[in-house]
């Protein structure tokens, strides 16, 4: 029997590079997966891709910063299946104004962009978590997995807004895990994964040159990653499966690095 057989899973940011890899991986293990994102056309393309693979991955438009939009998605999934077993909060991103370029300093930060990055990554995790958790409480079972980042625990140069937002996601993960356990018992668990460096659409130009060679920043990352390579999106799946597994029933409130050893390496 497949590990996720019969489970209903929703993934925010599900049309992105990492979201698609996670959706495929857990669908192959028997789950019915809903990918959620704002861009309807992109969702339709991804849904067709999964259909061609013979996988049960369904697309629903959703704005994670709009509580009503999220509630509508929850209602739709419950109408179809009567339960939601897991939520993976993969929505997130960065903006140029929330970063500090090599020729800039902290005074060049655009506060509006910084705020938008905080909203997308933090509120874009908090709002769906609360909405989906309500359904999980009714069914007395559920698993929430947030997607944090290696930059949460080891703030990286340049991406100040993103790092601050993901650090907040780590904090929220632990706070919600405690709150759910103390108020609703052991049946609803909240954890997070902290990916290291994976090539995705959002960071490709930062890490790779047009010819596929490493940028200076990409080379620095590889130099400080003991496994000496970037991660592959599918390498997130095994940890997601582990955290979703009913046998992981005593695991809540943790943030799991998936980083090729980056967080363990001092550089010496």
Provide structural commentary.
With 268 residues, the protein is α/β, with parallel strands linked by helices. It has two domains: 8-196 and 232-257, NAD(P)-binding Rossmann-like Domain (Rossmann fold), CATH 3.40.50; 201-230, no CATH class. The protein is 44% helix and 14% strand. It is built from nine helices and seven strands, in the order E-H-E-H-E-H-E-H-E-H-H-E-H-H-H-E. The chain has helices at residues 17-27, 40-53, 67-81, 111-139, 150-153, 160-184, 204-207, 216-223, 237-244; strands at 8-12, 32-37, 57-61, 86-89, 142-147, 188-195, 255-258. The protein has a seven-stranded parallel sheet, with helices on both faces. Helix 4 links the parallel strand 4 and strand 5 (142-147). Helix 1 crosses helix 9, helix 3 packs parallel to helix 4 (111-139) and helix 4 (111-139) packs parallel to helix 6 (160-184). The radius of gyration is 18 Å and the shape is globular. The mean pLDDT is 96.
Shape: globular
Q: Please trace the helix and strand order, writing H or E for each element.
A: EHEHEHEHEHHEHHHE
Strand residue percentage? 5-15%
- For this structure, the quaternary state is single chain
What's the CATH topology label of the largest domain?
Rossmann fold
Helix content range of the residues, please?
40-55%
Biggest β-sheet, characterized?
7 strands, parallel
Which class of the largest domain in CATH terms? Alpha Beta
TL;DR?
This protein has 268 residues and is an alpha/beta fold. The chain contains 9 helices and 7 strands; from the N terminus they run βαβαβαβαβααβαααβ.
């Amino acid at each position: 029997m497949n590990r996720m057989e019969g489970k209903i899973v929703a993934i925010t940011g599900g049309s992105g590079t990492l979201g698609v890899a996670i959706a495929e991986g857990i669908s192959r293990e028997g789950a019915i997966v809903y990918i959620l994102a704002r861009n309807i056309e992109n969702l339709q393309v991804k849904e067709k891709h999964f259909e061609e693979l013979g996988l049960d991955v369904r697309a629903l438009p959703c704005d994670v910063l709009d509580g009503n939009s999220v509630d509508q998605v929850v209602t739709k999934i419950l109408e179809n299946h009567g339960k939601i077993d897991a939520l993976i909060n993969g929505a997130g991103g960065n903006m140029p104004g929330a970063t500090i370029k090599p020729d800039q300093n902290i005074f060049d930060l655009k506060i509006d962009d910084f705020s938008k990055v905080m909203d997308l990554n933090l509120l874009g995790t908090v709002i769906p978590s609360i909405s989906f958790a309500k359904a999980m409480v009714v069914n007395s079972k559920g698993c929430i997995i947030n997607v944090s980042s290696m930059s949460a625990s080891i703030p990286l140069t340049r991406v100040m807004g993103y790092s601050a937002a993901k650090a907040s996601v780590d904090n929220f993960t632990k706070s919600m895990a405690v709150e759910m356990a103390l108020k609703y018992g052991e049946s609803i668990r909240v954890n997070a994964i902290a990916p290291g460096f994976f090539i995705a659409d959002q960071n490709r130009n930062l890490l790779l040159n047009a010819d596929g060679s490493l940028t200076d920043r990409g080379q620095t990352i590889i130099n400080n990653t003991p496994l000496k390579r970037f991660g592959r999106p599918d390498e997130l799946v095994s940890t997601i499966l582990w955290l979703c597994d009913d046998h992981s029933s005593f695991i809540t409130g943790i943030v799991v690095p998936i980083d090729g050893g980056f967080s363990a390496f001092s550089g010496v």
